[in-house]
Amino acid sequence: MPKVGMPEIRKPQLVEATMAAIDEVGLAGASVALISRKAGVSPGIINHYFGGKHGLLEETMRSVLRQLSHTVIEHLASVDKNDVPGRIKAIVAGNFDSYQVDNKVVKTWLSFWAQAMHDPQLHRLQRVNEKRLLSHLRHELKQVLPADKAQFVAQGTAALIDGIWLRGALTPGGISPTQAQSIITDYLEKQLAPYL
């Protein structure tokens, strides 16, 4: 966690430099020295304010998660509150927004997920993200589905979002937001048809 007094202008520079370094050489090769060079700051700044690379990775993921949350809320704001399929599509669109599928952000996500399996702080961030997605989905689905079915469809939709994202991240062509929306829409139509 950054210490109080970290100039707000430096945080975005350091987050961007961290993602650029991970994109270029992977998490293991993204040293404090490389990140600081990319950000145009001394390595001491990173160590002082973030306690090293781990703290900077945590702040980078917090930034990516804030962007994701903001984007999902922005997409939801443009859809009628009674249009459940439209609102689920908005949540999906937020998760496959151009920022989230940018190559350096994708590689940062993959590095984060790998580290989160072994690091309690990063694992907690991942759990917050997972719970937020399921909460958004359940909230919308409960308008038209019984609670247990809403939970089931929310989990299925979240699994599709994560699975399609991961599969796309690991293929040469990258993530296709259009294909993701199409697959998830097909799933939703089948799940919601008996209730609409």
UniProtKB/TrEMBL annotation:
GO process terms (BP): glycine betaine biosynthetic process from choline; negative regulation of DNA-templated transcription
Top-rank lineage group of the source organism: Bacteria
Single GO molecular function: transcription cis-regulatory region binding
Keywords carried by this UniProt record: DNA-binding, Repressor, Transcription, Transcription regulation
SUPFAM superfamilies named in the record: Homeodomain-like, Tetracyclin repressor-like, C-terminal domain
InterPro entries: BetI_C, DNA-bd_HTH_TetR-type_CS, Homeodomain-like_sf, HTH-type_TetR-like_transc_reg, HTH_TetR, Tet_transcr_reg_TetR-rel_C_sf, Tscrpt_rep_BetI
Residues covered by the HTH tetR-type domain: 8-68
Pathway named in the protein's UniProt entry: Amine and polyamine biosynthesis; betaine biosynthesis via choline pathway [regulation]
Residue spans binding DNA: 31-50
Gene3D superfamilies assigned: Tetracycline Repressor, domain 2 (1.10.357.10)
Signal peptide annotation: none
Functional summary from the UniProt entry: Repressor involved in choline regulation of the bet genes. Repressor involved in the biosynthesis of the osmoprotectant glycine betaine. It represses transcription of the choline transporter BetT and the genes of BetAB involved in the synthesis of glycine betaine.
PANTHER family: HTH-TYPE TRANSCRIPTIONAL REGULATOR BETI, HTH-TYPE TRANSCRIPTIONAL REGULATOR RUTR
HAMAP family referenced in this protein's UniProt entry, alphabetically: HTH_type_BetI (MF_00768)
Name of protein: HTH-type transcriptional regulator BetI
Species in which this protein is naturally found: Photobacterium halotolerans
Native organism taxonomy: Bacteria, Pseudomonadati, Pseudomonadota, Gammaproteobacteria, Vibrionales
Underlying gene: betI
